[in-house]
């Protein structure tokens, strides 16, 4: 399996004089966001400094936005996992340019091909991450698909494929994460579920998807209990309607559907992928260190009406 490790080698920006008490945690974030000598106006526990991150479905959409949020929050190393090697590599290269343009040096990136529905493929990807970085601290299972068929019309092979990716893929990703995290002392796993784990979307029919996301949400809670005393936290993040390739494909021939979704969302709009950045960094970082088995919904209020 071919992959590429990228390390930004641009000239380090002139160091600012730091007056922060937690230098390792705060330096990177400080350099990026502050042009004065004031300490960063954020809790140090929200930083991803020193952390090795892995994101499945990281080449595109929400997964890619999670990668950006981790880079902006100072992660040390990042593994972008996706179905095709070319897309994983391209995303890793784009993220390294993004880091460089933000003055964040010394961040390492690797793009790895992996089909999360295959346990063997997931194990191979983690083996590569461990060989390259030696540890993994924060994992996000974002790879997933959606399809709209009525229950009577849904082809059996497609139903099975959807569960293989959305449910078994999340399980293999989490299990392999825990296998590697427990010997190193712990870590944080975030399974991307959906508001569809809690409500039934209308008008489009998507019963297997909704059921798959309810399974992912409950999987996160179940695994959280299994691994709570071993230092591994597992939470789920449930977005509402977000503008990504996944939803754009559904909406491309149906602008009325977008209006319907917006009218059903109290905030009156679809989410931009970066609307999830705060929640993902919270869950993946030490800011949420006493939180496990929980779900965070970020849906513009959809589920409350
Ligand atoms: N976009 C939304 O409105 C929305 C809302 C709620 C939940 N979600 C969930 O968020 C996650 C990401 O969705 P998105 O909108 O970014 O989708 P997307 O289609 O834009 O991106 C999904 C990524 O997953 C990858 N992928 C698909 N199958 C894979 C496999 N078998 N192995 C490895 N990678 C695979 C794709 O190549 C792609 O890069 C999904 O789990 C989705 O169900 C999305």
UniProtKB/TrEMBL annotation:
Source organism's superkingdom?
Eukaryota
Q: Which PROSITE patterns match?
A: ADH_SHORT
Q: Does the keyword Calcium apply?
A: no
Q: Name one GO molecular function term.
A: oxidoreductase activity, acting on NAD(P)H, oxygen as acceptor
* Any one GO BP annotation for this protein: small molecule metabolic process
List, alphabetically, the InterPro entries matched.
Answer: NAD(P)-bd_dom_sf (IPR036291), Sc_DH/Rdtase_CS (IPR020904), SDR_fam (IPR002347)
Report keywords, A-Z.
NADP, Oxidoreductase
Q: Give the family per the record.
A: Belongs to the short-chain dehydrogenases/reductases (SDR) family.
Name listed for the protein in its UniProt record: NAD(P)-binding protein
Q: Which organism is it from?
A: Crucibulum laeve
């Amino acid at each position: 399996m071919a992959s590429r490790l990228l390390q930004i080698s641009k000239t380090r920006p002139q160091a600012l004089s730091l007056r922060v008490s937690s230098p390792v945690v705060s330096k990177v974030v400080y350099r990026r966001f502050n042009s004065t000598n004031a300490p960063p106006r954020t809790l140090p526990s929200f930083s991803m400094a020193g952390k090795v991150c892995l994101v499945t479905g990281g080449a595109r959409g929400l997964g890619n936005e999670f990668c950006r949020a981790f880079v902006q929050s100072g992660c040390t190393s990042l593994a972008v996992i996706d179905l095709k090697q070319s897309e994983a590599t391209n995303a890793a290269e784009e993220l390294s340019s993004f880091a460089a343009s933000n003055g964040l040096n010394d961040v390492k990136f690797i793009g790895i091909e992996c089909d999360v529905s295959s346990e063997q493929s997931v194990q191979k990807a983690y083996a590569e991450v461990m060989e390259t970085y030696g540890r993994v601290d924060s994992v996000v299972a974002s790879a997933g698909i959606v399809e709209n068929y009525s229950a009577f019309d849904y082809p059996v092979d497609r139903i099975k494929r959807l569960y293989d990716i959305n449910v078994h893929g999340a399980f293999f990703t989490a299990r392999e994460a825990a296998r590697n995290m427990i010997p190193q002392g712990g870590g944080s796993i975030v399974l991307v579920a959906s508001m569809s784990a809690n409500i039934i979307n209308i008008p489009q029919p998507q019963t297997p998807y909704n059921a798959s996301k309810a399974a992912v949400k409950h999987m996160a809670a179940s695994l959280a209990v299994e691994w709570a005393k071993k230092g591994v936290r597992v939470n789920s993040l449930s977005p509402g309607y977000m503008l990504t390739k996944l939803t754009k494909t559904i909406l491309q021939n149906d602008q009325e559907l977008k209006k319907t979704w917006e009218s059903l969302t109290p905030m009156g709009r679809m989410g931009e992928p970066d609307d999830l950045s705060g929640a993902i960094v919270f869950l993946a970082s030490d800011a949420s260190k006493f939180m496990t088995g929980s779900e965070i919904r970020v849906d513009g209020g959809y589920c409350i009406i």
